[in-house]
Design goal:
Length: about 400
């Protein structure tokens, strides 16, 4: 099997799994208990909190563990809206956010809030001039993702953070795809809240965190117990927390080297596909993109059929976000770039990891070439395209 869907989830690394193992059956105490046996679990939670915070230049007491990125996004957006509603009820986001943010904003609109959805350019970069123009006296929150989960485009967080800080507006970023993959510093980027999820960087599923700058006063999202300094109730998922902490330490230790390797493989993949698969185009920014992301549109191809045939060759890929798999509508991200609905339906996302090899890429490209040719041979639209192309060529020859 060749696994090229690391944007959907990653394999839990061996080191992370071994770090988690004792907290299932040996050190199983509830960290909130008072006896010394529980103290070992709480110490492990505290150590994980330090590791998670260190990767983004945050303080450990600014990290709140959650069940994952979707919960963290919901908490940040809903709690900020509730806490600052006396100042205003206007929120700014982008048109290509993950649905965890978009659907939360749509929910708030039904509660009387106003949301401005700022467009992106053809590369998926938010239009900063339109973002700045959207700011109003009653704007309380700007929420823009660090890097897009489908096309990999990295947003200009420093500029967005500066705009937010200048205008006294909270800045939240969904960094689920970026955390552990590219350098992030919450102080340098003026980030007030940041969401992340463990399973996107070789940690376990079901664990994430929300960074909340200490000056930000938002309420709890899950009510009940006094866990997480009374801001997020629920018994600590100790194995998961230990796992995300271990994954954060591993990510921090080899970040630069891993980025270099993945970028080289990504660029090799992109160059081969664009050169060898006719009528293909790269979606997203050519260089300001995640090191492991490559997203293509393939004309006269239905993405679902392509994925099935790749799977038959032992290649795992996707056509977009795993959260919208099976949806009939084309990707809202690709439509926001200006692609037609037909082009958006023919998309292919290949996301690598440090375990991906050059041989994996070569095998995938060769399989892709054959599958695309096979699918196009059955497409009446492609046949019409070839006929029209031939007519155009004959016309040009006749004119000269």
């Amino acid at each position: 099997m060749i696994y090229l869907d690391n944007a959907a989830t990653t394999r839990v690394s061996d080191e992370v799994f071994e770090a988690m193992r004792p907290y299932f059956c040996e050190l199983y105490a509830n960290p909130s208990a008072v006896y010394s046996f529980a103290g070992k679990s709480m110490k492990a939670v505290d150590e994980a909190r330090k590791s998670v915070a260190g990767l983004i230049g945050a303080k450990p007491n600014e990290i709140y563990f959650t069940a994952g990125g979707s919960e963290s996004d919901n908490w940040a957006v809903k709690a900020a809206a509730e806490a600052y509603h006396t100042k205003g009820k206007h929120i700014i986001t982008s048109t290509i956010e993950h649905h965890a943010v978009l659907h939360t904003c749509q929910y708030l609109e039904k509660q009387g809030y106003e949301v401005t959805y700022v467009p992106v350019d053809a590369s998926g970069v938010i239009r900063l001039d339109e973002l700045e123009a959207a700011i109003r006296p009653d704007t309380i929150l700007i929420t823009v993702m660090a890097a897009n989960n489908e096309i990999g485009t990295i947003q200009p967080l420093k500029e967005i953070g500066a705009l937010a800080r200048k205008n006294g507006i909270l800045f939240h970023t969904d960094a689920v795809q970026a955390y552990g993959h590219i350098p992030l510093d919450v102080d340098a980027l003026n980030i007030d809240m940041l969401s992340a999820s463990g399973h996107k960087f070789h940690g376990p599923k079901g664990i994430g965190f929300l960074y909340i700058r200490k000056e930000v006063c938002i309420g709890s999202f899950v009510h009940g117990g006094a866990q997480e300094r009374s801001r997020r109730a629920g018994t600590h998922n100790t194995p998961g927390i230990v796992g995300i902490g271990a994954a954060a330490r591993l990510a921090a230790g080899g970040l630069e080297k891993r980025m270099e390797k993945e970028t080289a493989l990504r660029d090799y993949l992109i160059s081969r596909v664009l050169a060898e698969v006719p009528l293909s185009r790269l979606n997203g920014h050519a260089t300001d993109r995640l090191p492991n992301n490559a997203n293509f549109s393939l004309s006269f191809i239905e993405g679902e059929s392509l994925l099935i045939l790749l799977d038959q060759q032992g290649i795992c890929a996707s056509s977009g976000s795993a959260c919208t798999a099976g949806a009939l509508d084309p990707s809202h991200v690709l439509l926001a770039l200006g692609l037609s609905r037909e082009a958006a339906r023919g998309s292919l996302r290949l996301s690598l990891s440090e375990e991906t090899t050059k041989e994996d890429i070569d095998v995938t490209v060769e399989a892709l070439k054959k599958i695309v040719a096979r699918l196009r041979s059955m497409s009446p639209q492609y046949e019409d395209f070839l006929k029209q192309q031939k007519k155009d060529e004959e016309k040009i020859k006749a004119e000269y």
